[in-house]
Design goal:
This protein is α+β, with helices and mostly antiparallel strands. It has a single domain, classed as Aminopeptidase (3-Layer(aba) Sandwich). 35% of the residues lie in helices and 32% in strands. It contains 6 helices and 7 strands; from the N terminus they run βααααβββαβαββ. The protein has a 7-stranded mixed β-sheet with strand order 1-2-3-4-5-7-6, with helices on both faces. The two termini are 20 Å apart.
């Protein structure tokens, strides 16, 4: 049996209407996914501080790129990235999917898209942070990300983000020069 990766469209976020869709998706996804990990009070704090319309607009002005993720005409998540010229890597600031599509290859397809984007921009890899108790950690490790640091960040309000830093670098075969990474 041949299986195909799901098709996910990455739609660039530029205007207030698109930002409002990201805010709506963030509230939905964070409420369904993070409640048992960080609790409702921290979810509310983090959404207000990092995923409000004003916060997203500020991040866009600071060089972050936001994308709405669409599958079969439905919005299924969002992502935010920033190319880092000094390290020549792509920072995946956010990659979130609605509960109904998790476990269907959407995360892998999204990471494949981002890996191709990084390569097209001449970047040498990608990195992100993920909560130590997030089940998505295993998905990242499965596709070739490696833990590189333990990161605890005070985000104010009496809250911290207790994360692992993960990195992904394309594996190049030493003799053929071909990319042997899992993507």
């Amino acid at each position: 049996m041949i299986t195909h990766a799901p098709v996910i469209d990455f739609l660039s976020v530029h205007d207030e209407e698109q930002i409002a869709l990201v805010v709506q998706l963030a509230r939905q996804i964070w409420s369904e996914h993070y409640l048992n990990i960080i609790g409702q009070a921290q979810i509310d704090y983090m959404l207000a501080r990092f995923q409000s319309s004003a916060a997203i607009a500020a991040q866009l002005r600071e060089g972050y790129e936001y994308f709405l993720l669409q599958h079969c005409g439905q919005y299924v998540g969002y992502a935010a990235i920033r190319a880092e010229a000094d390290s020549r890597r792509l920072f995946i600031s956010k990659l979130y999917l609605v509960d109904t599509v998790r476990g269907q290859g959407m995360g892998r397809a999204s990471l494949q898209y981002l890996a191709r984007l990084a390569d097209a921009r001449g970047l040498n890899g990608m990195w992100l942070t993920v909560n130590k108790n997030n089940p998505a950690l295993n998905a990242y490790l499965k596709v070739g990300f490696v833990k590189t640091a333990d990161v605890v960040t005070d985000i104010g309000g009496g809250y911290v983000m207790d994360d692992f830093q993960l990195e992904w670098t394309p594996a190049v075969h030493p003799q053929t020069g071909s990319n042997d990474n899992k993507y």
